[in-house]
Design a protein that fits this description.
alpha+beta, 5-stranded mixed sheet, 25% helix, 4 helices, 10 strands
Length: 182
């Protein structure tokens, strides 16, 4: 049973709670969101699997998740990138983002979200239980689609890009090449 790290407003750990219970109660917890760009400056999006307990079928950033108790945020981000998208790459933290939103199914995302950006020039190999699809998208095309059909995207993707989009698009690290044979 996955447990989340509960935090105070200063991101100091105050305990743990089961993942679903924390989202049902809207408890403030630690999270991360990973954004990956390729060498052409396109952003990797994943379409969340429809079986996800919230926001299923919506387009989102490369991966997101929650560090386990005692797990550093960067280690958790690399772990989930491998688990969800089947690759790993250099990541750089760019910001911390605090948000609280009620989701369509009554759950509440109440997070201090650590935002990391990385570079990758290979095709992902997503776990179908995590991601139903993926695509590389150019900034202008993404911004146009976000304005036209925001409901197609996760709420945190919209919030993070709205608050720190320029830093994400400019903050990428050098894209790591895909290993040979992929």
């Amino acid at each position: 049973m996955e447990r989340l790290v509960l935090v105070d407003e200063d991101d100091r750990e105050v305990g743990t709670e089961r993942k679903l219970a924390a989202h049902e109660a809207g408890l403030l917890h630690r999270a991360f969101s990973v954004f990956v760009l390729n060498g052409a400056g396109e952003l990797l999006l994943q379409r969340r699997a429809t079986s996800k307990y919230h926001s299923g079928g919506r387009w989102s950033n490369a991966c997101c998740g929650h560090p386990r108790p005692g797990e550093p945020v960067a280690a958790a981000a690399h772990r989930r990138l491998r688990e969800e998208m089947g690759f790993d790459c250099p990541l750089a933290p760019i910001s911390t983002f605090r948000y609280r939103v009620r989701l369509e199914n009554g759950l509440v995302e109440n997070e201090i979200d650590h935002v990391l950006v990385g570079g990758w020039d290979g095709p992902p190999a997503p776990d179908p239980l995590e991601a139903a699809g993926w695509r590389w998208v150019e900034r202008g095309a993404l911004e146009a689609r976000l304005a036209e059909a925001p409901e197609e995207f996760t709420v945190w993707l919209r919030l993070i890009l709205g608050a720190m989009g320029p830093e994400i698009w400019a903050g990428r690290v050098v894209a790591a090449p895909a290993p040979r044979g992929t």
